[in-house]
Write a structure and sequence with these properties.
By secondary structure, the protein is of the alpha/beta class. The protein is 34% helix and 28% strand. Strand 7, helix 5 and strand 8 form a beta-alpha-beta unit. Helix 3 packs antiparallel against helix 4. The longest helix has 18 residues. The chain is globular and about 50 Å long.
Length: 244
């Protein structure tokens, strides 16, 4: 496992000769083995932050340190996008096993893939192709592919945003179960405040490229979304955004 330390992170883009600041002096810490959620309106900078952590873009200023035992080093990072991005010519099993393509230990690969097929309830669909899956199943395969890669840090960019209400609730429960089982460091991005409170141990509220509030959620999993404590945290987040 690994944690993340972000200090003074700034990201600027040049658009038609004008400078646009997507992130401004962001400093946060993701503790090792924690579930952190970034929540905010569209365009607040949350996806930009995720892309910088994944190494898909380069920051304008600031530092990102992946920490393992107090020593900064590059550990494996997995990412789950809103779109499942499965390879349509591969079966469910083959998509999940993709990270093993260049490894020699095929016996271990078979065991790991079979394990996550069972965990995610995909055993009966292991020979199906992406076009034969529902949206929820496809997202489970995408999550399984990331888990088979065995990253130290899992980044999730609104992975349930395109799902219907009932499938989304089921996926939220499944990701909590997997987190409790594995205790990996998870950073989850969403614009859904209820989802943020249901999932996060730590919640970072962002607006206009800045961190406006950080909360520590002490509620036990699985959480009751109509409890007084849950709704109080939800209200606190909404108030911090409406005050901007």
């Amino acid at each position: 496992m690994a944690g993340v330390e972000i200090v003074g992170l700034t990201k600027e883009y040049n658009v038609d000769g004008k400078t646009f600041t997507a992130l401004r002096n962001v400093s946060i810490t993701l503790p090792e083995g924690s579930f952190t959620v970034i929540v905010g309106k569209s365009g607040c900078g949350k996806t930009t932050l995720l892309r910088l952590l994944a190494g898909l873009e380069t920051q304008t200023a600031g530092n990102i340190s992946i920490l393992d035992g107090g020593t900064a080093q590059r550990n494996r990072i997995g990412i789950v996008f809103q779109e499942h991005r499965l390879m349509p010519w591969l079966t469910v099993r083959e998509n999940m096993a993709f990270s093993f393509a260049k490894r020699q230990d095929h016996g271990s690969a078979e065991y790991i893939v079979s394990h996550y097929l069972q965990v995610l309830g995909l055993e009966q669909f292991q020979n199906a192709y992406p076009s034969q899956l529902s949206g929820g199943m496809a997202q489970r395969v995408a999550l399984g592919r990331t888990l088979c890669y065995d990253p130290d840090i899992i980044l999730m960019d609104e992975p349930f945003g395109a799902l219907d209400y009932f499938t989304r609730k089921r996926m939220q429960q499944e990701i909590v179960d997997i987190f409790l089982m594995q205790k990996k460091t998870v950073l989850f991005v969403t614009h859904d405040v209820t989802e943020a409170v249901y999932l996060g141990q730590n919640i970072i509220v962002m607006d206009a490229g800045e961190v406006v509030k950080e909360l520590s959620v002490k509620l036990e999993y699985h959480r009751n979304a109509v409890s007084t404590e849950f709704m109080a945290i939800q209200s606190e987040i909404l108030q911090s955004l409406s005050a901007r």
